[in-house]
């Protein structure tokens, strides 16, 4: 029998669900005059000195491969940064510069998973974690952080999901889409369960710089956790460098050595130009980050207070740049709410259910958008609710 | 004067947008409207907030384009009053928009505005340079403003991001 084109595609990939974010992008993309709170990236352009450093590196002809793990001086700078900001010590040989945090997570999954291994994925979360586990041959086991706990995952919930196949826990705090941050005590409680069951943690700390009330604590900084943590971070959110595709991963030498094999066969190295930009960002970008954080904080307060005022309950997110208000009071599902809001008022948000079951009844609204746009968006959402 | 975090936040917002609704400002800093108003009143009374102004690009308005010059002025300071007396004499003229005491090769930086180039030239030759302590002046006319007080004047405001990501 002749093969159809579709049958060339693996069963695993065919069965992957398309991203719910992608679907909403397609809906909103063709429309005019849309105010988008659906964007998962900073509204700032990469700081000029960083862009200039990249241009200079091109002018000087730095256009070839770098070592697989990344430029030595960049890895050195990353170890200093992680030590100063997050109080975890790594040697440069425990760092790989990756193609965004996404490739770091993908490499981690492919390095640690054997067929059938389970990874507990704390949801709501960014849409790619589960599929990356699946593609690496593992089995994602979603566990739902709940609204009544301000979307903080409880150690008991993790413990209940552990089986003899559980290999790792995948977390992201500050969280996309909820903005929730776990403080040191909460992380410590989680760490106890992880240690007790001898699990590994993949900690996506891409929003670590963007916290507004409490200080960020890295999972790897807790006692006994460095040796069982794959720390993922990057430049996208902190330095407004999403398009550069630059991230990094830190892990104990024995794990990192193996990850490097995967990284080198699959990706060779991260973009050289981006690496030079990243070097400048780490060396001289602190003031720019602080400025952006200040601005996000004001906008966060504005949008959260506005939602609560119009009757959409919203917890005050400790980090990232997302508000995750509940729309349950409207009686609509997340998908209905988001689609009607887009069609009737031209405001794009992302329905919460695409990030996991417990996200149902919520919408993700990015406040990485100018105050003028936020003000207008709040006006329109209020009008929309009153029209229901 | 030491200001609180909230007061600094309020100043930061107002400096960029003096016309913001107090209700919105209050939400941004997490205070009630009354509390926000009280802080603004206090900052106004303390003259930390001096005035609420509007930045206008007059070059877009026919017959109002005007001429601006920055003038480096060297002066002989006077016993007892230093530069203050001559600075005061200069800033009394309506044409003068700003007067700064500078470090470096000259003493006062004076920004003058007039309707025409002639008007500014006349001001410099007839009024400014004839003042007793003024030793010399160097006039620079501003040809085009690209960025003023942190604001880029002609900038395309296009969001280059994809709508949903």
UniProtKB/TrEMBL annotation, chain A:
Its cofactor is pyridoxal 5'-phosphate. Residues 33-381 form the Aminotransferase class I/classII large domain. GO terms for molecular function: pyridoxal phosphate binding; transaminase activity. Its EC number is 2.6.1.-. It comes from the Bacteria. Keywords: Aminotransferase, Pyridoxal phosphate, Transferase. NCBIfam families: PRK07682.1 (NF005816). Belongs to the class-I pyridoxal-phosphate-dependent aminotransferase family. This is Aminotransferase. It comes from Ureibacillus terrenus.
Automatic annotation (TrEMBL), chain B:
The keyword Transcription applies. GO terms for molecular function: sequence-specific DNA binding. InterPro entries: AsnC-type_HTH_dom, Dimeric_a/b-barrel, HTH-Siroheme_Decarb, Tscrpt_reg_AsnC-like, Tscrpt_reg_AsnC/Lrp_C, WH-like_DNA-bd_sf, WH_DNA-bd_sf. Keywords: DNA-binding, Transcription, Transcription regulation. Residues 3-68 form the HTH asnC-type domain. The keyword Cytoplasm does not apply. This is Lrp/AsnC family transcriptional regulator. It comes from Ureibacillus terrenus.
